[in-house]
Write a structure and sequence with these properties.
The complex is a heterotrimer of chains A (192), B (190) and C (177).
Chain A (H helix, E strand, L loop, with lengths): L1 H13 L10 H7 L3 H30 L8 H23 L1 H7 L2 H6 L2 H13 L3 H31 L9 H16 L7
Helix pairs in contact in A: 1-8, 3-4, 3-7, 3-8, 4-5, 4-7, 7-8, 8-9
Chain B lengths: L3 H32 L5 H9 L13 H10 L11 H12 L14 E5 L9 H5 L5 E2 L7 E2 L9 H5 L5 E5 L22
Helix pairs in contact in B: 2-3, 2-4
Chain C lengths: L4 E3 L3 E12 L2 E6 L23 E6 L14 E7 H25 L5 H25 L7 E5 L2 H5 L6 H7 L5 E4 L1
Antiparallel strand pairs in C: 1-2, 2-3, 2-5, 3-4, 4-7, 5-6
Helix pairs in contact in C: 1-2
Classes of the chains: A mainly alpha (192), B mainly alpha (190), C alpha+beta (177).
Chain lengths: 192, 190, 177
Amino acid sequence: MQDFLLVLLSTAIVNNVVLAKFLGLCPFMGTSSRIDTAVGMALATTFVLTLSTGFVWAAEALLLAPLDLTFLRTMTFILVIAAVVQFTEMVIRRISPPLYEALGVYLPLITTNCAVLGVALLTVQAGNGFVASLLRGFGAAVGFGLVLVIFAGLRERLALADVPKVFEGAPIGFITAGVLSLAFMGFAGLGA
Amino acid sequence: MIDAHMMTQAAQAVGAIGLLGTGLGVVLGVAARYLSAPVDERAEAVAALLPGSNCAQCGYAGCKQAAAAMVDGRAAPNCCPPGGASTAQRVADLLGVRLTSDGTDTALPTVAWVNEARCIGCTRCIRKCGADAIVGAIKQMHTVLPEACYACGLCVAECPTDAIEMKPVMPTLATWHWPKPVAKSATPVH
Amino acid sequence: MNTLQDIDDTLIEGLARVVAIDNAQVWLAAEQPASCGSCATRSACGSGATKPTARWRVPRTLGPGQPPLMLGDTVRIGVERSALNRASLSAFVLPLVTMLTAAIGMQDAGDGVAIAAALVGLLLGVAAARVLARRWRNALVPVVLGRATSAAVSSCGPTQTAALRSIAIPVIQQRSQ
């Protein structure tokens, strides 16, 4: 149990997908201007990331490794991730149509989120077992969501602050993201 | 040099990925069939035939509502003036009803026309046009492309200086043809 | 719902249009951008804006002394934010939690068993989410808050949620196509 918590901590905070690995910056900057869009994006990405990591591990272990086809990783993983996202969209539409109308717009955007493919490739390269890889995916997604919500809160405050005219909007957002990334670097070395 | 080992590996690669893709496709197809939320197929099909500019000339709030009304039988297929005779015919064919001529489709087709003396270049009409038929920019002269306009009339309502009006398209020697014969007893069939 | 704005963190507002009149009641539909019908990629669009499916039936009069709703009128509707949060948490997080619990529980039995357990956990979680969504379906039904004047659409001033609730008109019937 202890090493699972360690894995979660490591992937969520120490090696944060956005602030330490610099993946998934497009949805990070795009949906973090308001907290409710950030929360919606974070929840949808968490679901898709964890599920994709599991399926991608299975594809690697059952298809690519036995046939010595590891050079096809990127293509296969994209195929699996796209299928997972499509399936998720159908399931959400069936479970709760009002929820689909509220958050369904984010799901196709996650297919092209490089954080999903990045986490999948990094997890497979780490070469752990199924459960550990699944937890890595979940931890990375939790870290993504956490940073998204934190940044949304920061940006909502920035919108009301007295920012110089040249810096308003995206420039001050990027500068703040850089400072946040520096702050998260303080976690480096924690638990490894 | 391509040897047997490379060929087998290539074949294996193609086969494995092809199998994976086909398998995923089958799963998604089955899921789409069983997990799909029920939609009214006919109303969607009719709505796709309509212009889609929600101009409300038919009396309904939007094209989707008019399509639902046509499917239910509350509206005739030729109730859409911007659609014209071709849309009415296609909707009637889709729904299997016969068209009656109640005067709506005997009106001459019209297109919008910008009176250049009055246009002030405010671009409000461009934002309303659902067919992208108006060309223009801020403080520049606007003009209507007649081949793209389907006469929904939204631009006429929007113009602050009344610079747009609907002009009838007069038949030319190239477009005139003998009118088709009308059956003596044309009754609606639902 | 792409046209949402926040008020006081308890009620998410949106706009809806009157699409049909039915004696003393009207049918509302969520706002759809007018250009969606002529968009070439609407079949591939993941946004719910191109295929709005929910309809709500509300009384035609909004209150004493107010004119009745006419075809094409725009009204403001509100949805409880906590209901949306609960729905999204149960739909997205619950299946994940069950999947992870099942996988961690079976981890000692080997990778294949762990994969099978994870799949079973996922399916159970999705089924549980479906049951919960059905039970909480009524909480996601919006209430009508009044006409949408041009001032209300563009203002961002804080309004009292209690006052909004007192004038809220409940929906009589909801229909999803």
